[in-house]
Amino acid sequence: QRPGSYELVAGYRFRLSYAPPKWYLLPPEHSVLKVSPNYEVVDAINNSLVNRVVMFGIKPCDFNAIAVLDEILTSKHPIYVKRRSSIVAMIIEECLEPAETCFCSITGTGPTVLRGYDLAYARLDENTVIFKPGSTLGEEIIKATGLRVAVQEQVETYYSTLERAVGIMNTRLPRLEEIQRALRKSVKNEKLWRALSEKCTGCGNCNYVCPTCFCIEIVDRVEESHTIRTALWTACRTYTYGLVAGGHFRRDLYMRYRHFVLHKFLFYSKQTRGLLGCVGCGRCTTWCPLGLDLKETLVRVVKEVD
What we know:
Elements: H1 22-25, E1 29-35, E2 41-43, E3 53-58, H2 60-73, H3 78-85, E4 87-93, H4 104-107, E5 119-125, E6 128-133, H5 136-145, H6 152-170, H7 176-186, H8 190-196, H9 205-209, E7 216-222, E8 227-233, E9 243-244, E10 247-248, H10 253-267, H11 283-286, H12 294-305
Parallel strand pairs: 3-4, 4-5
Antiparallel strand pairs: 1-2, 1-8, 5-6, 7-8, 9-10
C-alpha cells in the first residue's frame, strides 16, 4: 500500500481493503422510493430486507470512521440507520505494521482500539494472535472459543509492537495541533494550494474510497411501470459537484482540493462533536491514480505557512 499503488502479497500482513465499511452502511447506489403511475408511493428503504451483520476484521481507522458517520447520518439518512442497526458485532483487527500511507496515530484513530468494540485481535506472528474483549459479547465469544490466557512475554511483545507502529507513523507528520493551525492560516494562500493540487485530475477516487465521505445526489429514473428515486454517491473533487444554477462555487481544482483537506481536518468537527473527518487510513493516497500524497500536502502546508 503506497501512493498510487496497491498490491496483495502472499505472506504479508493484511492492511486495508479498497472498500471501507461505508460501502455496506451507505451503498454507492440505493433506491429511496418508487412511484406508480397512479401516484402510489412505496418506501423502498423501509420495505427492503437487511440481514444481521458481523463486521469482522475491520481496522481501527475504519471502526472510528463509523463513529464519525454515526454522528452525521444517524438522524438524517434512513438507509444508514437501518443498515447500522443490523450490525450485531464489531470485531477489529489491530494494526502492528502500518503501511507507507498510514497515519492513524496522528488522527487518534489507531493502531489500536480503546472502547465501543466487541472483540479486537492482533497478529503477533504466524502462530500467535492476541485477543481482547471490549464488551460482554466479546467476553462470551472468548469463553466459547476456549482461548488460553496470554503469557506476560506475549503481552509485552504486543505492547512493544504497537509502540513501534505508533513511532513509525509519528515521524511522518507534525502534531495534529500544528497541522490544524497551519491549515487555518493557509485558507487564502491560493499560490500554495494551486501548487499542492497540481497532480489532481478531479476524478473523485479519493472521495469514493474515503471511509467518512458521505455526499449523495438524487436521481429520478422513469421506467414503463414506475419511477424510481435513487441516491448515488457523488464526489466534491469532481467538477460537476459545485456546478449549480447560479454558476460554479468551486470551479478550479485547487479550490476543490483545498476544501477536501480543510473539511477533513477542520470543518467535520463542527458536525461530529469534535471528531475529525480524516481517520488516517491513507486510502485517498493509495487509490489516487497519480499518487497525490495527503501526508506530503500536510507537511508542506505546515512548512510553508506555520
